[in-house]
Amino acid sequence: MQRLLVTGGAGFIGSNFVHYVLSHTDHHVTVLDKLTYAGNLESLKGLPGQRFRFIKGDIADAPLVDELVSSADAVVHYAAESHNDNSLHNPRPFLDTNIIGTYTLIEAARKHGTRFHHISTDEVYGDLELDDPVRFTEQTPYNPSSPYSSTKAGSDLLVRAWVRSFGLQATISNCSNNYGPYQHVEKFIPRQITNVIDGVRPKLYGKGENVRDWIHADDHSSAVLTILEKGRIGETYLIGADGEKDNKSVVELILKAMGQPADAYDHVVDRPGHDLRYAIDSTKLRKELGWQPQYQDFEAGLEATAQWYRDNEAWWRPQKAETEAKYKEQGQ
Fold first, then answer.
1. Which keywords accompany this UniProt record (predicted)?
2. Which residues carry out catalysis?
């Protein structure tokens, strides 16, 4: 699989994957990205031109998708509308991209017999109780709770149906929350980091007891590449790095990493339907395919991420004012 088509490759985890592939393999990568607000060409600067090209376009554009898929050995599908708050205020783009866009891609992959890997989220499983020791596995029933997670669940099911009905050569991965470089400042960790840089106290939903299972974007990238190379067709693999932390602890670690008092944050009203806890059991991926995460010290990874945002203000500064204006409109 020397020629990869990566959708959403100018977004956060997509761009990290592109950097990872080009630095760890000899593959050629074509990125297809619509460059909505979450896509940023600056995230793809410095890549080797002889093995990388960028195409601006929509994954729901069937003729364009057909042309690109026809010349690819594999498609890695990251493109998605992915922000829960945005999906609560305007669900329609999530249907257009996550459902119709995925349908367009898998139809092209089916037509050309192209290997397809679909990137999904642990949010399709709903949430777990805070005091429940259980983690999500590949057998956990779907129970999405937002327009975002429901459209991702729908796209997963489309891929599974195309595998069974049409022989699509596909795998699926559901991952826990990513952190690291190139993440839009609307997201939890970079929003808090950039607020501290700007002298603004971080904001925490509710009591901050909600738990997320964090994984560094490089570990996600290495897992996806492993699945693409070794995964069994038709299988789903959960990607996680045993990084469970409640939101209050994450904010306090960010403040610590940035030399601020651990209690220098404010509580805001919790968002509607806020999932309590996510937790991934990645046993299948580790045992069957031999994958292991490299970033197992979350605090160290968080410190490195905070430093990246300090060092790359030119990358995130253009997003910041508009993002905070939207949050202000929403009372957050």
1. Lyase, NAD
2. 122-123, 148
